[in-house]
Amino acid sequence: MTDSPDYESLAAHLEDLEEKSRTWHRTLCSAFLNEEEQSAMVKLFPPSKYVRYDGGYPEARKKKVIFPADGEDDFSDIACLKATIDQRFRRIGHSDILGALMHLQIDRSSFGDFWIEENCIYLYTSTGMASFLIDNLKRINQLNVSFECTDDRPVQVFRTKKIKCVVASERADALVAGLVHCSRTEAKELIRAGMVQVNHVTLEEPDKLCDNNVTISIRGTGRFTYLGTDHATKSGRIAAEFLQYI
Questions:
Q1: Which tens digits make up the pLDDT trace of 169-192?
Q2: Tens digits of residue pLDDT in 32-77
Q3: Cβ atoms within 10 Å of 70's Cβ, excluding its own
Q4: For residue 78, what is the enclosing H or E element?
Q5: What are residue 90's phi and psi, to 5 degrees?
Q6: How many helices (H) and strands (E) does the chain have?
Q7: What domains can you pick out in the chain, each with its CATH number?
Q8: Cα separation of 104 and 220, whole Å?
Q9: Nearest-angstrom CA–CA distance, 164 and 11
Q10: 145 in helix, strand or coil?
């Protein structure tokens, strides 16, 4: 079994921001947190008039924790960058953009969601990082790009398709085995190696029962939403339905 992530330092950092926000009566915010970090922190810092999670748009996967100076403060230091691209001769993907960002030697917490939509790249980041990226992110996998700030707040739309797997039960290891097309034993090994998340939290035990609408992420396979069972087979197994993100 893998060790659980240690979020003590992140929690301490957010506690410090929260205390300073109250003491100085200033709105303060964290860097971008990924979904697993958010799942851990939301238990300690639940959303309220004094705690907001913001990624630039409501459905964002990466978000900052914002501690408003008062309940009416709608401050956000999130900027959206847009680049119009011509992919007729060279196409790029998500990994190309991530590689270009990493080449600039900036931390992943410095930017939020990014994606390609038709002939545009959209990238959420902080207002403080926006100028740096505009000045320095000029090339992505040999494709010239030019970013600028936009007042629009585009929403990333995830494409899905419905799939079915015949599985032994609603236990996590059974569902993972069906999704990966492997044995239950191999699925348990994936879980114990820290390769599986349920609702963005690394799964540690293979016998967890999964409820409808939970998100199951399997490293190297993809992300799925479990919709529930469609019917039982004559052999006593169940037909499980999922939405697969593609």
A1: 999 999 999 999 999 999 999 999
A2: 999 999 999 999 999 999 999 999 999 999 999 999 988 777 888 9
A3: 10
A4: strand 78-84
A5: -150, 120
A6: 6, 15
A7: 13-19+27-156 (3.30.70.330), 160-245 (3.10.290.10)
A8: 26
A9: 39
A10: coil
